[in-house]
Write a structure and sequence with these properties.
mainly beta; Immunoglobulin-like; globular
Length: 794
């Protein structure tokens, strides 16, 4: 053991040993250096040393884009490579970090850092690529000193040879019918012939000259009217710029849904065009899409193309006064690039959720980029900018959702704003997702909850209807004496369906571990299932004592440095469902993820919703689902004001709800474990029953004893809470949970919140510093600070 503590090595005091002892909270010495990697060991009284736990070490996880060309740019990405992960910032005041490419040749790229205090650089290292790179596959590594390199796991950069200049087919050529722009005549036949000529040639660019072109797919054969004009592989559509080449669609409302104008089946691009519909939409049922990505499996022509939609670029276009801009054909999407577009859609600009996907062909969006787009709301009462289902290495950054704009409205008197801005669901796992540097305004000026960013459980599936007790386990497996669910959404579950689901320890020794299922075997006669996981357990969960949940989840999601504004002006604060808007919300299984450095002005703040609704004999109608959080960090955010400070219907701050249905035969497991709320600034914003930081139940917490440990080992430290003072809000909601005080930190129990640690939280002009009805809370006090939320006098 170290004799003393220095910057190199030392000891750290234990400040909380949880009961039961499944976690230890320590206080790191003040001598350790920021951004330096350290190892931590636990040493027992008998001198037994644990394996080391590493902190602050560089952890690159994935790259974007997944491929580049030798020298050519594509999708207007600017020939830059981004490495996404954790702890990527320069160390010790260094001016740069480095990215290494090793393949046919070796290249070392200097990362252009934005500044020493920029939070994004802890998660993203971006470097310009050389002017010329030898084609081939490259491993990628990151270094903070150009000596020690850490490789990106399980992914290589593909460098493709520069594409050969494609043949061009000019839409106005006489061979396609002699169509001319701006004459009001139907140009559909010319589009059809030009696209077919490009298909027969094995690919090419259909060039749309400057001017307005009128297109209608209402006269297509019935089997094609849903999909519209099909761009075969290698066929591209190119205009002269969105302000120059304009496509006007006629008669969209008469088409069968989705009524796409264009269907892209892979290896396509649409660039430099403006799309608009000539009809007004009056309902969601009427809304029709401009572009469909992939033919649905039931389409007569779907067997002619790949099962996945790969390598599609949508860049530099305008979609204004359309029903929907992009929808999916329930096919997995790989390497989709949506960049530099303007979207003004009636109800959804991007509706890429894989809705109704067959369980045999799971939907995903992999290795894709959605950047530098501008979204404006349409006239529908619940317009949403984007809905994306599932994610695997997706970069969603630098987009604008301008809810104050009237540009996309069909009539100037229509209600502006959003029902929600950027929304994700769990049609499949949401892994390695970056949501960064987006700007969102007025996401609550229409009806509903007003989400700015939402991570939602909808579409996710679970292997069991409740948490299961482990029968036996080994280093990389568990056995459970319960049959898996063999039906989801009314469909039979195919073999291997639960591969890539996540197994999470939710009670007992090993609590908090989450692992991906690699394979499983099931004995349907006995109902016994064995699941193999990767990587191996850190702590093997013992049979008969640990419980698990098997489900889809979000993992390594970074919601970083987004700006959300719901102030008036520019917003109207006109939500028809009450005073709600601008919330960043997580209502799903999530682990090892971060919400950091976001700025929210007059919003509903940050909300984490955790629940447990098992389907049991006492609750046969329950959903059999759970939303849980493990190692979720909420750091360095600014929450400045709420929607309506004077109303008890308006909730803000940082809110961590928990709820469980009253099922006595199935008590809830731990719903939140090892989460962190640190270094946030919250001003004039508090929760439903008070609390700028409010950890509270959202409904029933079960029958007696009802004091189940649902939130454990929560860390709340270094937060600044200001101006939570004055008159209580007026009682407008009358929900039976009236707010009793303007409070800084509020832990609601009894017994549901356990082993919380509070340290270094500052309350300035706050009426009540702390309401703590949790169990075994540790309050770390340093000196006699009258403004300490946990140690002061109020």
């Amino acid at each position: 053991m170290p004799a003393k503590t220095t910057v190199i090595r030392g000891t750290a005091p234990i400040v909380k040993l949880a009961d039961p002892p499944y976690s230890i909270t320590i206080q790191l010495p003040g001598l350790i250096q920021a951004d330096r990697g350290y190892h931590i060991w636990v040493v027992s009284a008998a001198g037994e040393w644990s394996l080391p736990v590493s902190i602050n070490d560089s952890r690159p996880l994935w790259i974007t884009p997944a491929y580049v060309y030798s020298s050519a740019d594509f999708a207007d990405l600017g020939r830059k490579l981004r490495v996404v992960g954790r702890n990527l910032a320069p160390v010790g005041g260094a001016a740069a970090t480095w990215i290494q490419l090793q393949g046919p040749k070796t290249y070392v790229l200097a990362v252009r850092n934005r500044g020493a205090d920029t939070p994004e650089q802890r998660y993203v290292s971006e470097a310009p690529l050389p002017e010329q790179i030898a084609p081939g596959k490259y491993s990628v590594a990151v270094s903070q000193d150009a000596r020690k390199w850490t490789r990106v796991p399980a992914q290589q950069l593909e460098v493709r040879p520069d594409p050969v200049a494609p043949r061009t087919f000019n839409l106005s050529d006489p061979e396609f019918g002699g169509c001319r722009p701006d004459d009001g005549a139907d140009d559909t036949a010319c589009f059809t012939r030009a696209l077919e000529a490009a298909r027969q040639a094995g690919g090419g660019v259909v060039h749309v000259p400057k001017g307005s072109w009128d297109v209608s797919t209402t006269a297509l054969p019935d089997a094609r009217r849903r999909a519209g004009l099909i761009l075969a592989p290698g066929v591209h559509l190119q205009g002269e710029g969105a302000s120059a080449s304009i496509v006007i669609r006629r008669g969209a409302r008469s088409l069968p849904a989705p009524g796409a104008l264009l269907t892209l089946v892979g290896e396509n691009s649409v660039r430099g065009l403006s799309f608009t519909d000539d009809e007004r939409y009056e309902s969601l049922d009427q809304s029709r899409a401009v572009i469909q990505l992939g033919l649905p499996p039931e389409s007569p022509e779907s067997n002619l193309y790949s099962d996945t939609v790969d390598d599609v670029v949508i860049s530099g276009n305008t979609f204004n006064h359309v029903g929907r801009a992009l929808v999916d054909g329930r096919r997995p999407l790989r390497r989709l690039f949506v960049t530099h577009n303007e979207f003004g859609a009636y109800d959804n600009a991007l509706l890429l959720t894989g809705g109704g996907t067959s369980l045999a062909h799971l939907y995903r969006i992999d290795d894709s980029v959605v950047r530098w787009n501008r979204f404006v709301p349409g006239s529908y009462a619940e317009t949403i900018a984007t809905q994306l289902g599932a994610a695997g290495r997706v970069d969603f950054s630098d987009n604008v959702a301008d809810g104050a704009s009237v540009q996309g409205l069909q009539d100037g008197a229509d209600r502006r704003g959003w029902r929600a801005a950027f929304f994700w669901n769990l049609t499949n796992d949401g892994e390695n997702l970056l949501i960064s540097d987006n700007q969102i305004s007025c996401s609550g000026d229409k009806a509903s909850d007003g989400e700015a960013v939402a991570l939602d459980n909808s579409g996710g599936t679970f292997g069991f209807e409740a948490a299961q007790t482990i029968d036996a386990a080994g280093p990389d497996w568990v056995r459970i004496n319960r049959a898996l669910l063999h039906e989801q959404f009314g469909q039979p579950v195919p073999d291997n369906y639960y591969n890539a689901h996540w197994l999470r320890i939710v009670a007992g020794p090993g609590l908090g571990q989450t692992r991906r299922v690699e394979s499983y075997t099931e004995d349907r006669a006995t109902g016994m299932v064995t699941l193999r996981i990767s990587p191996s357990w850190d702590v093997v969960p013992p049979g008969g004592r640990a419980r698990v949940i098997l489900g889809m989840q979000f993992w390594q999601v970074y919601v970083v440095a987004n700006a959300v504004n719901h102030a008036a002006p520019p917003c109207r604060k006109a939500n028809l469902n009450g005073p709600h808007g601008g919330v960043i919300v997580v209502a799903a299984l999530i682990a090892d993820s971060v919400i950091e450095a976001n700025r929210q002005v007059e919003t509903d703040g940050i909300e984490i919703f955790r629940d447990y609704t098992p389907r049991t004999k006492s609750c046969p109608s329950c959903g059999g689902v759970a939303t849980l959080s493990t190692a979720l960090e909420i750091r360095g955010n600014l929450i400045d004001g709420e929607y309506d400070w004077s109303s008890d219907c308006s909730w803000s701050g940082i809110r961590g709800y928990f709820v469980a249905v009253p099922t006595p035969e199935e008590p809830p497991p731990t719903l939140g474990f090892g989460d962190v709320i640190a270094h946030n600034v919250i001003a004039r914003a508090d929760g439903q029953r008070g609390g700028a930081i409010d950890i509270a139940h959202a409904g029933a917490t079960g029958p007696p004893p009802g004091n189940w440990p649902m939130v454990q080992s929560l860390l709340i430290f270094g937060n600044v809470i200001r101006d939570i003072s004055g008159e209580l809000p007026r009682s407008a909601c009358r929900d039976g949970h009236g707010q009793r005080a303007r409070t800084g930190i509020r832990l609601e129990g009894p017994g549901n919140i356990r082993d919380t640690v509070l340290e270094g939280n500052r309350c300035e002009r706050v009426d009540t510093f702390l309401e703590d009805s949790g169990t075994a809370t540790a309050r770390l006090c340093h000196g006699n600070d009258p403004n300490s939320c946990e140690c002061g006098q109020r």
